[in-house]
Amino acid sequence: MHAHGNSIQKVHKPSSRSPAISNHTMASRLTWCPLLVWLTLAAIVRAENHCSEHRYEHSLNTHHLQFTKEIPDREYGVLRQFKSLHCCGKGYRSIEWFKNNKPHPWSKDVSSFIVYPEAANQTIYSPRLEENDIGNYTCILRNETHAIKHEIELRLQDNKPDNPMPTFRPKDMMVSVGESARFYCEAYVGNLYLPDAANEIVWSQMFDDDPHNVTDSVQVNVTREAGQIIGSYLSIPNIKAHHYGRYRCQIMSGNSAQKLNLSVLLSPVEVTTITDSQLSALVYIMATLLFVLVVLFAWICRTVQQRTSGKKDNRCSAQFIAEHDSV
């Protein structure tokens, strides 16, 4: 009986601690589960609004097939975190998504991304990024007669990169005086865990490699993916002569010593000039055409003259015959 009692006691002790461990684990899960759900839902809502914000001004009042804002060429995601990809456009009848040339919908072994209908299929997302999600994604927008496409490379990255990593580089522009211009730059910076760390983006106009403030312009900074990706729009509503030149988007992440510098060029619209060889060819063509016209005019005049002379000779012969017959 004593041995049996010890046996019962040994079984009883682990079972007495088991509820405490289970309660602690359950409490932890109950604490984290609503938080994770809330963060995922918040990320989805932000992803839904992405394509409706900061659209190109010219896209607001037009309806043809087009992209409506800048779309990154490369994206970075953190393993087992929310991730979304966007293809913002309008004037389309359908949007098709491909991953490594395989059309959506995908099986789990291809990609965990799903289409978000509330964003008019312009957004796909994964609540929990997996390694097999990495690859090249393509979106194709179609209407009745045309199609446009964009490709996005998705890579895995730590949530604390050493330096900012570019996701969208600003594009050079040629704009006439009086028109407007807009540049955009963007980079993946990850999460900042230090209280004194901060991200910053500054646009500058460069004169002999010296940065200067951009006059008569507006800079708007944006974030997405819970602040892991930061970007900035530089808008110049009325281009003047002094606006032409090189600009720099400088991105600083936390306490990183290395800054990301992205350059872009704003140029006036080029006036097409004719080269010497083109001018010689044009003169030769014009001279040949003039010669042909002169020859054609001379031939027409000669033909008309011959026909007129023939008719006059016929009238004279008829008159002579009539006079002799009367005699």
Low-confidence stretches: 1-22, 24-33, 35-39
Radius of gyration: 38 Å
Query: What is the end-to-end distance?
Result: 175 Å
According to DSSP, the number of beta strands is 19
> What is the topology, as strand order, of the major beta sheet?
2-10-9-5-6
Tally the helices.
2
Share of helical residues: 25-40%
User: Kindly state the mean pLDDT as a whole number?
Assistant: 84
- Structural class by helix and strand composition: alpha+beta
The best one-word shape is: elongated
Report the biggest beta sheet as strand number plus sense, adding barrel if it closes.
5 strands, mixed
**Approximately what portion of the residues adopt beta-strand conformation?**
25-35%
Strand/helix succession: HEEEEEEEEEEEEEEEEEEEH
List keywords for this structure.
single chain, about 325 residues, alpha+beta, five-stranded mixed beta sheet, 19 strands, disordered N terminus
